[in-house]
Structure formats: C-alpha cells, structure tokens
C-alpha cells in the first residue's frame, strides 16, 4: 500500500505574494514558506484559489513554485495546483512541477464551457501524463468550477494509477465518505471547506487543505490533534471559534485574502502585498475589522493552544 502519511495533516493553501508594484515577490514567497515551516504544518498547496492562480501567467506560477520549493528545503509536503483553462499550459505547469520534485500536482476541471465528463477526464489525464512520476489530486470545487466530481467521473479517473487523492471542497460532508469508500485503501481525501474541518475529519478525511489555515494555523493544528485523540467536543469548540473569525474576515469590503494578508502583517510581520485585480483590495474603512479579526485570532490561540 502507498505511504499516505505525507498527506495526513494540515496543509494551508499558499497565498499569492506581491511586491509594491503588484508583481510576484520571490522574497515574499520564501518568507511565507519559511513561516509555514515554523508553524509546523504538514505542507502547502501552491497555486490554487488562495494563490490567485487564475489571475497569474504560466511564468508567474512557475516562479512562485520554484521559490516555495527552494525555501521549503524538503520540510513540507508540496502539492502544486497546475490547472489552467487550456490543456497545453496545464501540461507545461505539470511537467515543471514534476521537475522541481513536488509531492503531487492537482487540477480543477476546465471552467466556463460545460464539458462532458469524457472531456474532463481527458483533460485531467493529459495533465497527469505530463508528470508521469507524480501523484495527481482531483480538485472538486463545484461552487466555483461550475461542475462537480460525479461518481461516474470519479470511477473513470480511478483507472489512472497516478490519481491518489481528491481535494474535496464541495459542501456536503457525505461526499468525503463516498470518495473514501470508492477510492479504497490508501486513497486520500482532503477536507476543503475550512468551516467544517471537524466534520470532514470525523467522516474520514485524511487531512485538510484550506484558505484560512495559513492565517491561524495553530487553531487548525489543534483541531486535528483533538480529533485524532477523539475529543470532538473540544475540537468543535475551536471550530466554532475559527468559523466566527472567518465570518468576520468575510464582512470587510475588501477581498478576504486581502484581509488575511493584512492580518499576517499585523500578527507575524509578514508583508506579502495585497490582492490582484479584479479582486478588491482593502479600504481604510476595513482596518477596524482587520484589527478585530487579528485580536480574535490572538484570543483564540491563547485560549486553545
């Protein structure tokens, strides 16, 4: 059976790092990577939604991954999301990721046009073939991609021996159970929605990949620890605290990732810029909300960790 321990744990989705001019900041990427190592997370998921991948060029995405791998120094599991909205660019990113030695590549389905399942399977398999020695993770996020991972499509993808996991960001926790049962022994399912990590783990998820993990990793690491010990009551209490912080972060006028980056600057001294248009950057009126969120994180970490 394949060793899946490198995927079992808390894996923050890596944030886009920009300089003052809005270009990719290699320094910011490396600083954020080292921060993740210091916090003790299992790994990082690079180039996904939190990485603002759909607003970056192929070369920018390569640059980010190169500096994550460099700064991680082998201390993190690295999953590289390589999907673009065309097959050729996706395959180029997949081959590049394998050359860098990442642990896995991942891909959402093609967006905009609603493709038949056989075309989605071909797209994923083409990407996988470009990285023939690397695990492949299916990213199921129907609320944004516009298409869900059905059981028929999942069974078709399981014919590919490189398909090792599903990053499941659909809201029904039942989907985790279904993918675990169908995938069989050694198949990995990641919980995607941060707000339901406890329930996802209870249903059998091997770990979590989340967009808010990086701003408050201590809370999610504690949730994972408590669930593994069987203390669901305490884990749920921390989940509620994390959820309250998420809801508050989403109440600002600026994009949530802009809020997260400002909190990282306040709490950790990390300056990784803002967000890239058309995402909305923070406004001055958002700062009281940002400071409140930072204080909520401080309080929760002090109380639970």
Describe this structure in words.
This protein is an alpha/beta fold and 305 residues long. 48% of the residues lie in helices and 12% in strands. It has helices at residues 26-39, 58-72, 87-100, 117-129, 142-145, 151-157, 174-183, 197-202, 217-229, 232-249, 256-268, 287-304, and strands spanning 10-12, 43-46, 77-81, 104-107, 135-140, 163-168, 188-191, 207-210. β4, α4 and β5 (135-140) form a beta-alpha-beta unit. The longest helix has 18 residues, at 232-249. The radius of gyration is 18 Å and the shape is globular. The protein starts with 9 loop residues before the first strand and ends with a helix.
Provide the fold topology.
Layout: E1 10-12, H1 26-39, E2 43-46, H2 58-72, E3 77-81, H3 87-100, E4 104-107, H4 117-129, E5 135-140, H5 142-145, H6 151-157, E6 163-168, H7 174-183, E7 188-191, H8 197-202, E8 207-210, H9 217-229, H10 232-249, H11 256-268, H12 287-304
Parallel strand pairs: 1-8, 2-3, 3-4, 4-5, 5-6, 6-7, 7-8
Helix pairs in contact: 1-2, 2-3, 3-4, 4-6, 9-10, 10-12, 11-12
């Amino acid at each position: 059976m394949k060793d899946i321990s490198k995927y079992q744990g808390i894996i923050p989705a890596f944030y886009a790092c920009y300089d003052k001019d809005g270009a990719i900041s290699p320094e910011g990427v490396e600083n954020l990577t080292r921060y993740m190592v210091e916090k003790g997370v299992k790994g990082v998921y690079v180039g996904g939604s939190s990485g603002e991948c759909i607003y970056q060029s192929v070369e920018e995405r390569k640059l980010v991954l190169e500096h994550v791998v460099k700064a991680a120094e082998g201390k993190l599991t690295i999953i590289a999301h390589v999907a673009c909205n065309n097959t050729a660019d996706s395959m180029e990113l997949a081959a590049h990721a394998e050359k860098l030695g990442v642990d896995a590549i991942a891909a959402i389905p093609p967006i905009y046009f609603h493709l038949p399942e056989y075309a989605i399977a071909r797209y994923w398999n083409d990407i996988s073939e470009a990285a023939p020695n690397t695990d492949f993770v299916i990213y199921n996020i129907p609320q944004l991609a516009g298409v869900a991972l059905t059981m028929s499509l999942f069974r078709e993808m399981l014919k590919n021996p490189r398909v090792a996991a599903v990053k499941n960001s659909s809201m029904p926790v039942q989907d985790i159970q279904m993918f675990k049962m169908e995938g069989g022994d050694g198949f990995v399912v990641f919980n995607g929605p941060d707000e339901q990590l406890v329930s996802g783990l209870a249903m059998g998820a091997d770990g979590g990949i989340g967009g808010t993990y990086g701003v408050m990793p201590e809370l999610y690491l504690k949730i994972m620890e408590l669930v593994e010990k069987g203390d669901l009551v305490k884990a749920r209490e921390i989940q509620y605290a994390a959820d309250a912080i998420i809801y508050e972060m989403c109440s600002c006028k600026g994009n949530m990732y802009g809020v997260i980056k400002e909190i990282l600057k306040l709490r950790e001294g990390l300056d990784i810029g803002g967000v890239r248009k058309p995402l909305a950057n923070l406004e001055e009126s958002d700062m009281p909300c940002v400071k409140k969120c930072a204080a909520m994180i401080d309080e929760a970490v002090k109380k639970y960790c």
